[in-house]
Amino acid sequence: MTVALSGGEIAARLEERFPGSVVESGQDSLLVKSESLRAAAGFLKTAPGLEFDYLTAITGVDYYDYFEVVYQLTSIRHNHSLVVKARCYGRDNPALPSVVGLWKGADFQEREIYDLMGIRFEGHPNLKRIVLWDGFTGYPLRKDYL
Amino acid sequence: MVIKTEPFVVNIGPAHPSTHGVFRMRATLDGEVVLDIEPVFGYLHRGIEKLAEERTYTQIIPLTDRLDYLASMSNNLAYVLAVEKLAGIAVPERAEYLRVIMAELQRIASHLIGVGAFLNDCGAFMTPILYMIREREKILDLFEMVCGQRLTYNYMRIGGVSHDIPEEFLPALKKFVDSMPGFIDEYDQLLKENEILLARSKGVGILSREQAINISASGPVLRASGVKWDIRKVDPYSIYDRFGFEVPTGSAGDCYDRYRVRVEEMRQSVRILKQAVEKLPAGEVRSEVSHLVRPPAGEAYGHIEAPRGELGFYLVSDNSIAPYRFHVRAPSLLNLTALREMVVGWKVADVLAIFGSIDICMGEADR
Amino acid sequence: MSLFDPGLNLSAYYPGTLPPEWPGGYWIHWGVFVVIILAFVLLMAMGFIWLERREVGRFQARLGPNRVGPFGVLQPVADAIKVLTKEDIIPAKGDKLVYWLAPVVAFVPVLMVFAVVPFQDGALLADLNIGILYVVAISSVSVVGVFMAGWSSNNKYSLLGAMRAVSQLVSYEIPLGLSILGVVVLAGSLSLNSIVEAQHIPFILLQPLGFLIYMAAAAAEINRTPFDLLEADSEIVAGFHTEYSGMKFALFYLVEYCEVLAVSVIVTTLFLAGWKGPLLPPLLWFLIKVFGVFTVIVWVRATVPRLRVDQVMAFAWKCLLPLALINLLITGIQVLVWPEVLPWAVVFLNLAIMVVLILLWSKFFKLGGGRVEV
Q: Which chains touch A (3 or more CB pairs under 8 A)?
């Protein structure tokens, strides 16, 4: 059974390493500051006992006030999982650091979120539309798009 | 004499016999050798994630049929599991067994097509895939018995399945389960040591263990690289913890291993089916659930081991009758991340063999 | 005396070239046989198309065409009508003249092959004393047509297919020629009619290895699986004739089947004792053998996947070529040492040699690998 790790415990470890990186933590998820996302992700991937080597999925959710990007992390070695979230504010040019450098599996998923939700991932090597064509205006998965 | 050459770009697809739907690869070639490849998606994008936000939870089930149209039952199952997780709905025992039976039948049907199409991409003149289709036909007949459909089943419901199996289903299923291992053996005998198949697939398109994990590969692609990771085992959903079965893995991570893993998985699926048919209890097949499910506000990620890999549904609910956000973690899309690394440096013919060995379904990758 | 003089008796100059006792001499004989050959080739090609589709249907656990006429025998006719009424499209930026000429250039040499084929004893257009050499020379001209088609289509797939065609044909000419040489050494003649006459027992028994090499090389020459690289449907989408439609496509389609017919005919003549056989009339024997060979070719097509381009080349140069040379050497020695025929001992000896050589090569010759670091 894949153990869903509690966000609180991980948050404590993250705070210890990168003070101020965690915004809030709950039983099933962990919200990190967007500026420290990259560092936190790197820590989660390599820290002994955690080793989240497998990025299951990335999703974006539009909550009108902010966009939330949800990272489902899994460790194949320890068979546990964690949900990490990051928020970005502003509807004109929301941006988050990319995690492609850590997990290559993020490549297409970040492009998809950029395509449909309009969140830019800084540091992504090839950030362009994936399912819609170049030149399409608007971001269909946003709640204010129709 | 030095001949001046220059690389040239070939569009493989979107309309190409071997791209399994409408996938396109922009390949840069130096003669026959592939220098670079850029996958282009979106030819089958229907905006299913957006459509789902406008529909009730039950109305989304037919939409999930259209994701991976070669494994609609698995899609149904993954989606209803996610909703049940979100809303906390219990499922009757008999329905759980029926779900497992359908999911495993679907896995066999999908792997048959996957293996047959892979051999077709290797250049076999339609023979393997037609033999595969002959067997798949029996599964489709079984599905037709239970839900009247042969491709888009719409069979699972939130809290069970749409209706109980007809009387003639179980004898037919038993007959199928008894005949299937013999067929797999016969087929395996023909191809396992076929010299040309070995030459074309052994050592071709190697995906190392580390790479496979790093690119979030799943399903047979991940297991062929030697990672024993099957959601049915590591995070058992439904009632998979009650069945005995093995998780076949490969060692080299090449096309041949991916093909072998699929064949072995079919055997294991038959094993699960045998046990499920024996244990199938009587009783209700659907718990009392309103057609307008209103899950409490929150979010849930439900995932299953679909034929092509980990199929996950991420649902966000705002306590209305429609999901606030509906996201599909499509194994086909993520497995394709590996494509570029696997094909660079190989010949044009290998590109299609490797692509075939990943076994994707564009309906799911583009959504 | 002019060459066009109807009374010209060329056989006086080239003994054995013509049957002089035909009334009207050379020209009537020529005219009759041209008509016979054209009818034979077109009818057989149609028959082959039908037979292949039916047989492949059986191999693939389905029925095959069975709607048009009894057992679907009229299916090729229906297909021909369909394809001939289709629009003839020429790519806008293609080379129009070359594009137009390519099917003709591919088709004519294949037809010319049949000029030297004996349908029964002495029944042939021209009993050239260099018959088999002529066949090898003429049949390799087809590739020019294929290359012209690939080049003028202005399509990258077609160009890839054309490139593959040329490299493959050039490679396979050599084992093909060498395997034929074994037969020629045994028969002591290059004339196809004399080769048939020399076969007291079919040469397939005396030349089992040569037969296999010829079949493999010929499969590559006529682009049948496992060497059908230049039209590789799943890779380069029909290769050189991707852009062709209508009549021109029909011609390429016909070329494909005429080439198969040519190979079946040549194999029958060289290795299966041509028109010879007990009881039945010679022409019937000839046809039975041709259909038998064709069935084997179809069987292979329905069974095996395709090789990759470098593997196909490696197979020609590293496997077929040395084997063909060894085969020629052994045949030469046998002919020198046992000039008086001792057929049955030699048959078993050659079978044993074939088995040993093939086993040896299968041990040392491995296909696979082939990644280029970029």
A: B
Residues 6 or more apart from C284 whose CB is under 8 A from it? none
Q: Is residue A17 in a domain?
A: yes
* Cis omega (within 30 of 0) for bond into C226: yes
Q: From the CB of residue C68, how many other CB atoms can be counted at a distance below 10 Å?
A: 15
Cis? peptide before B14, omega within 30° of 0: yes
Residue type at position B307:
P
Residue B26 forms contact with A (CB below 8 Å): no
Q: Is there a domain that residue A73 lies in?
A: yes
Residues whose CB falls within 8 Å of the CB of residue A143, separated by 6 or more in sequence, listed in order: A62, A64
pTM (2 d.p.): 0.84
Q: Chains near B, with 3+ CB pairs < 8 A? A: A, C
Nearest Cα of chain B lies from the Cα of C71 at a distance, in angstroms, of 21
Q: Find residues 90-119 of chain B whose CB sits inside 8 Å of chain A.
A: none
Q: What chain B residue is nearest to A3 in terms of C-alpha separation?
A: B235
Rounded to the nearest angstrom, the minimum Cα separation between B186 and chain A is: 35
Residue of C nearest to B344 (CA): C374
Q: Which range of residues forms the domain containing residue A57?
A: 3-91
Is residue A137 included in any domain, yes or no? Answer: no
Q: C-alpha angle B154/B159/B160, rounded to 5°?
A: 55
Is B346 at the interface with chain C, CB within 8 A?
yes
- A140 near B CB under 8 A: yes
CA C227 to chain centre: 14
Q: Is B303 at the interface with chain A, CB within 8 A?
A: yes
Nearest chain C residue to B352, by CA: C235
Best to test chain B binding among A2, A55, A56 (most B CBs inside 10 Å): A56
Contact B334 A109 (CB under 8 A): yes
Decide if C156 and B8 are in contact by the 8 Å CB cutoff: yes
Q: In this structure, are residues B99 and B302 in contact, taking their beta carbons and an 8 Å threshold?
A: no
Q: Which of B119, B202, B350 sits opposite C308 (nearest CB)?
A: B350
Provide the angle, in degrees to the nearest 10, between the axes of the packed helices C321-337 and C156-187: 10
Q: Does B198 contact C at CB distance below 8 Å?
A: yes
Each residue's pLDDT, cut to its tens digit, for chain B (367 residues) gives 677 888 888 888 787 877 777 888 888 888 788 888 888 888 888 888 888 888 888 888 888 888 888 888 889 999 998 888 888 888 888 888 888 888 999 999 999 988 888 888 887 778 888 888 888 888 999 888 888 888 888 888 888 888 888 888 888 888 888 888 888 888 888 777 777 888 888 888 888 888 888 888 888 888 888 888 888 888 888 888 888 888 888 888 888 888 889 888 998 999 898 888 888 888 888 888 888 888 888 888 888 888 888 888 998 988 888 888 889 888 888 888 888 888 888 888 888 888 888 888 888 888 8
| Chain C residues touching B119 at Cβ < 8 A | 305
Q: Note whether residue A98 is domain-resident.
A: no
Q: How many CB atoms lie within 10 A of CB B284?
A: 14
Count of domains observed in chain A: 1
**Burial per residue of B118-145, b for 16 or more beta-carbon CB atoms within 10 angstroms, e otherwise:** bbbbbbbbbbbbbbbbebbebbbebbeb
Residue-wise pLDDT for B58-117, tens only, equals 888 888 888 888 888 889 999 998 888 888 888 888 888 888 888 999 999 999 988 888
In tens, the pLDDT along B77-88 reads 999 988 888 888
Residue A104's closest chain B neighbor by CA? B215
Q: What is the CATH number of the domain that holds A83?
A: 3.30.460.80
Q: How many CB atoms lie within 10 A of CB B236?
A: 16
Nearest to A131 among B316, B325, B366 (CB): B366
Cα–Cα distance, C295 to A137 (Å, whole number): 59
